[in-house]
SDR family oxidoreductase (Frankia nepalensis), 265 residues
Amino acid sequence: MAASTEQRPAGDGLPGAGFRLDGRVAVVTGASSGLGAAVARALAGAGARVAVVARREDRLATLAKEIDGLAVGADLLVPEQVDAVVPRVAAELGGPEILVNAAGNVFSEDRAEDEPADAVASTLALNLVAPFRLSQQVFGHMRAAGRGAITNVSSISGRVGIPGIPQASYAASKAGLSGLTAELAVQWARHRIRVNTVAPGFFRSEITESLYATERGQTWLRRNTPLPDDGIAQDMVGAVLWLVSDAGRYVTGQTIVVDGGWTAR
């Protein structure tokens, strides 16, 4: 009888053991604030060696020192800087087995018919093209390791329209992430590389600060969110840790929505 090629999860069978990331190298983009920073701390706390990537190098340096990680300053709107990220991480920490694409931004608040072409291009470049390029770059390292996990950070805007908040190119980029996720998951499954997406609802961040700053905005959020609590970055961390660890070893190609019930209404 041929030997089984099945890989068993790490750990001793206890519920928490599968969430450990000891010895693995992780890359987290958008790590200078918000969800990216929270994810970087969680992965480091689970035992990973974490490279944090963003434009704001002062914030990165502080976070990298806190988690004993590697700060990689890069503007992901610049292709040459995108292409330099993974080689540097591999040279200084080792080949990445985990990639979390958390960087993203909204470059226009115009209605769809008025959104400038340069804003559309920047939105797609940062929110969709950069995650694809970084996924391509980590592929060889993950294939060599015999496993890997990529988690993209999308948004409920990629699934539903949000009345009163025009963001056509942003919504298109986030919907595109879910399509990219499914395609890469199928293509790379034979290498045990899993690719998933987390789609957060509204939570406090630099992008949404103006919404939370007014009583009108907070009332609108409470009225449309079934759960009675404000979302915070830490609410998304559990889903990301599950997806990148052995606890989620049989999950791939999925978009996991974390939105307090917004899209379930």
